[in-house]
Design brief:
Distance between the termini: 23 Å
Number of strands: 12
Largest sheet: 7 strands, mixed
Order of helices and strands: EHHEHEHHEHEHEHHEEHHHEHEEEH
Structural class: alpha/beta
Bound molecules: ligand TLP
Shape: globular
Number of domains: 2
CATH topology of the largest domain: Aspartate Aminotransferase, domain 2
Length: 344
């Protein structure tokens, strides 16, 4: 059996989702006539305390249309170079939205409000107009860390006081909710827009949601159409999203427990550096520098033992727990990874 720890995007739809897909009332969503899509969008907006929601194909699309709906071409976006938008979205903010990134490095996913304030430039004909602050929670490249609500509030206040909008990449905001015991709407309240993914730990096959005020969502809807993201009978996707929001959030706690167990097991492996104390949600990043192997070599060794992980070169491997990984599989994964790393 292959143990797939590459990402929570590997999750398959549940039986309940497949049943819901078959019986969902459908219509043409580009014309606003798919009742299941409308139901999901309203439900998501209500859960996050916003006026309106928009179903999009992916988190990447959700982030892009959000940035477009908040800005004009040539505007500046303040964001962490370790954020997904900067690092993993194929440069879409520049290539498609025409936006200028102003990177401000976080420490372990935590941006410093003073550094953000210092990066927001004063009006000057030479400068792009600072328009958006992007935040990410949970923060992927820092190991799924939860950005605490107090810090989140402080960062949003810094941006708002200076006239910027705040977009929250909350791809895994429900992991933050479950880990911190704080409802996602508390983070959402401070931000102007939030994107979250249905297709990760929540197990949907496709889809993300953007929420914000009604005018913002109308603009985002137009941009979604412009980039080819208008969908027709998208209720088959939305039906899974409704099941996810109704039944799949609380179980994320299991993924978090399993990630901590995995981290504890991996911490004993020679050459691996991992701090289980920093594992707050469903991700474990291991620094493999002391093994003397490249990231590709480590991944290959793991694959030979039937364990799939993802690489973050030059020195890190990421393991993500999800619905298909239970405690027994975690134990087996640790045994296999030990074996992989002990064979020379
Ligand atoms: N992240 C994926 C990969 O793209 C790295 C993963 O396996 O973790 N924001 C954050 C914080 C994300 O982690 C991701 C996906 C996205 C946005 C984009 O979502 P999709 O993949 O639906 O475009």
């Amino acid at each position: 059996m292959i143990i797939n720890l590459r990402s929570d995007t590997q999750t398959l739809p549940t039986e309940a989702m497949l049943r819901a897909m078959v019986s969902a009332p459908l219509g043409d969503d580009v014309l606003g006539e798919d009742p299941t899509v409308r139901k999901l969008e309203d439900m998501a907006a209500r859960m996050l305390g916003k006026e309106a929601g928009l179903l999009v194909v992916s988190g990447t699309m959700g982030n892009l249309v959000s940035l477009m709906a908040h800005s004009n071409r040539g505007d500046e976006v303040i964001l962490d170079p370790d954020s997904h938008i900067f690092y993993h979205e194929a440069g879409s903010m520049a290539a498609i939205a025409g936006l200028m990134p102003m990177p401000v490095k976080s420490c372990d996913g935590m941006l410093d409000p003073d550094a953000v304030a210092a990066a927001i430039r004063k009006p000057n004909v030479h400068y792009p107009i600072p328009r958006i602050l992007c935040l990410e929670n949970t923060h992927n490249r820092s190991g799924g860390r939860v950005v605490p609500l107090d810090l989140h509030r402080e960062l949003c206040a810094v941006a708002h006081d200076r006239g910027l909008k705040v977009h929250l990449d909350g791809a895994r905001i429900f992991n933050a909710q479950v880990a911190a015991g704080i409802p996602a709407y508390e983070w959402a309240r401070e931000a102007d827009s939030v994107m979250f993914c249905l297709s990760k730990g929540l197990s949907c096959p496709i889809g993300s949601i953007v929420v914000g005020d009604a005018d913002f969502i109308e603009r985002a809807r137009r941009y979604r159409k412009q980039i080819g993201g208008g969908m027709r009978q998208a209720g088959i996707i939305a039906a899974c999203g409704i099941v996810a929001l109704e039944t799949m959030i609380d179980r994320l706690a299991e993924d978090h427990t399993n990630a901590r167990l995995l981290a504890q097991g991996l911490a004993d492996i020679k050459g691996f550096k991992v701090d289980p104390g920093k594992v707050e949600t469903n991700m474990v990043y291991v620094d493999h520098c002391a093994t003397g192997l490249s990231t590709e070599e480590v991944l290959l060794r793991l694959e030979c033992q039937g364990v799939l992980a993802s690489g973050s070169p030059p020195s890190r491997i990421r393991f993500v727990t999800h619905r298909h990984i239970d405690r027994a599989i975690v134990d087996e994964a640790v045994r296999r990874i030990k074996r992989a790393m002990e064979t020379s």
